[in-house]
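Contributing: when you submit paired examples, paste them exactly as shown. First protein:
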Amino acid sequence: MKKIKMQNANQMTLEEVFEQFVAATAAKGVKVKTLSTYKQHFKAISKRLNPETPIVIVKETSQNPKRITFL
C-alpha cells in the first residue's frame, strides 16, 4: 500500500491526520466494517492520547517508543 502524503502534516493534530487517513482509505474501497473498526480503535486510543495532540509531537516521540508518554 502506498504511503499517504499530507501537506502541512506538522501543523495537524492526531485527529485530523486520522480523518484524512480514513477518507483516503475509504476512497480506496475498503469495507465499511473495516472503517468502523479503525474508528473504534482510534476512540480507544483517544482515551489515553489526546486527539488534539499535534502530530509532530507524536512523530518525535515515536522515534524512541520507550519515551512515549500518555496525557
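Second protein:
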Amino acid sequence: MGAKNQGYKSEISYEDSPIRPSQQKRLKPADVDAIVAGYEGGITLVELAHQLGVHKRTVSEALRRQGVPRREHPSR
C-alpha cells in the first residue's frame, strides 16, 4: 500500500542554519534571589521572565521551590 519507513534517519545540521536548538538556561542563585525579591516587590512572572530571558514557567518553578506563595490574578 504505502511506503514503509525504511529506518530513515534525518541528519540535521544546525551549523549553517539561523535556527538553533533551544538550550535551557539554568538560574544562578543570584537570579533566584532576584526573582523572589522582584515578585515580592510586585513584578509579574511575565516581567521577571522577560528580564531574565527565561520562560514564565521557569520563574514560577523557582518561586515554588523557594516557598513563595503565588498571588491571585486580579480577574479571578
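If you have annotations for the second protein, write them as plain sentences, like these:
DSSP finds three helices and no strands in the chain.
The chain has a mean pLDDT of 80.
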